[in-house]
Design brief:
alpha+beta, Ribosomal Protein S5, domain 2, globular, 129 residues, 3 helices, single chain
Length: 129
């Protein structure tokens, strides 16, 4: 029996400017409302199978408190579902960079965010195979 760690480490967060530029220049995207998911497969070996970036528009949410609340919702829902995505990536030997961009103009419930993230992770799993 293996123990799953439901954490989101620093290595799993996308922060290198070169990787971010490559993601938005060459990445493919789809919508799992209220999220737009941009992803690309990376050739180089990484310590984690998927790195993520979360973006919430300052134009839609003027207050940082609300933007941070949305980011927390997205991070939490991804953190709980990332194992579904990591297993096929590890078996295929592929590495992903993913950006989750929030599209809605108002806060959505956590249940709706969970459904959107579940759909996004499922679609990513289908697209990488």
């Amino acid at each position: 029996m293996t123990i799953r760690r439901y954490t989101l480490s620093k290595a799993e967060r996308l922060s290198r400017k070169r990787d971010i530029d490559l993601l938005f220049a060459e990445g493919q995207s789809f919508i799992a409302y209220p999220l737009r998911v941009v992803y690309t497969v990376i050739d180089e070996q990484r310590s984690v199978p998927a790195s993520i970036l979360i973006s919430v528009s300052k134009k839609k949410f003027k207050r940082a408190v609300k933007r941070n609340a949305v980011k927390r919702q997205i991070r939490e829902s991804y953190r709980l579902r990332k194992s579904v995505l990591h297993e096929p990536l590890l078996t295929a030997g592929k590495f992903l960079t993913i950006a989750f961009i929030y599209l809605e103009k108002e806060l959505v419930s956590y249940e709706n965010m969970e459904k959107a993230m579940e759909k996004a992770v499922r679609m990513l799993g289908e697209k990488i195979q």
